[in-house]
Specification:
heterodimer, A: 3 domains, about 75% helix, B: alpha/beta, Glycerol-3-phosphate (1)-acyltransferase, seven-stranded mixed sheet, 9 helices
Amino acid sequence: MSAAGSDLLLLLFGVGGVLVLASSIGFVLKQRLSPDGSNVVIENLNARINAWWIMVALIGVAFLAGRIGVVVLFGFCSFAALREFVTLTNTRRADHWALACAFFIVLPLQYYLIATEWYGLYSIFIPVYAFLFMPIMAVFRGDTERFLVRIAEVQWALMICVFCASHVPALLSLDIPGYEDRNVLLIAFLVIVVQLSDVLQYVWGKLFGKTKIAPRLSPSKTVEGFVGGVASATLIGASLWWITPFSALQAGLLAFTIAIMGFFGGLVMSAIKRDRGVKDWGHLIGGHGGLIDRLDSVVFSAPIFFHIVRYGWSLT
Amino acid sequence: MKALFTKAVAVMIVVFARAVTAVRAIWPESGPPQRQCIYFANHSSHGDFILIWSVLPPWMRVRTRPVAGADYWLKSKLNRFIGCDVFDAVLIERDREKRAQDPIEVMSGVLDTGASLILFPEGTRNETEARLLPFRSGLYNLAKARPGIDLVPVWIDNLNRVMPKGEIVPIPLICTVTFGEALTLQPEEARETFLLRATDALLALAPKHAGDGQ
């Protein structure tokens, strides 16, 4: 087996070990504090851990399937995220073609460009071409009511759910000397750091949280959770340097950047949820809410991580 | 052989509906209805009963039949196949002139076989901005003909945005199907009073979401 393959398996076993530990803790907590299933926090914790098993299994299978597996997985994530997002927007009947185009042309084309590694086009396709052509499609129907709001919402939905999310599989197209065939580990690094940062912010917050950091946006986020979560995610990122082309210090700095972007991504998406009057984006993932509830921090950090690595390490 | 084929088509339609709309049922506190009942729902799309049908537990699904307009579901071979063979719809002739049988008698007859019905009391698809059209008397007449049966309000949300009238490509948007507590016709209850009560029970299930531009 290649070095990348064995590193990947080692990583998957490591994550599996963490999940076994989490499930055991969840089981003990349930026995002690919520034997009849009445403690909402414990039940939600266990639902979240169970959902993690499924998410890790899906990502693991996609990684082992290689480039196509990863592109297809994130393509479906974008589809589900875009569906959650557009459900909460103000679109009208006149947007029907534009929306059909977003789901069935823009989304698949963006992932096709990612799969064929056409950097010059996939990095401007949605910000330039979709940006100009989507409103043109909408204007044909002649409905001017809330026009700017409608086209802005559709463009924002595409940027967040498709463009930004597609930068995760785009990491596969980077050409880093001495790191050939190992790019999938960059995705593992990004996803592990950003998701652990979220989880650890939640854990630190639950254990020590006192001071609310953004009471109007997200009442569950605390300063203690933020500092503890970002610091521990940075350390974990640094300790994962061996799967990356970075030194331990560089890995730590990148992990810090990812965690910070992820945190602010969560806040921005929370603000949108508040405005739309919903608690979660959807119900796709038991215990977590919608897919965007899990993906918000990834989409904000992925493009930044992609461009830093591309600028600093990649030949292409 | 044909039964197997229609069953496969039914599964495909349900899978497709779920893939596009990620449809989710919201049950009342007492859970899904356990007895035979008449589901009455808002109507904005030909896909309405498919969505209700998809979220029903399979054992209820096989004994639930939608009530639909004969003019649409007999229009072409494909419509007839989907309406009659796959979903086993109870077809009602909407044009009074052409009626050979009283629709209430037809529906009562089906209820007597033990089947549940899906009924759209507005009588036609709602293409207006109003949340509901005024109910026709069909629901009242049926409730009067078979007074013992539970009437369950069902609100289908967002399907009109997935596939507005005249469009051929569905937009993937998340839909919900909200079931309410059952009501029954009170003895001596007047038609107007009952229909108003049923309308209110249905409207009470409609979510007030930001997505409808209000």
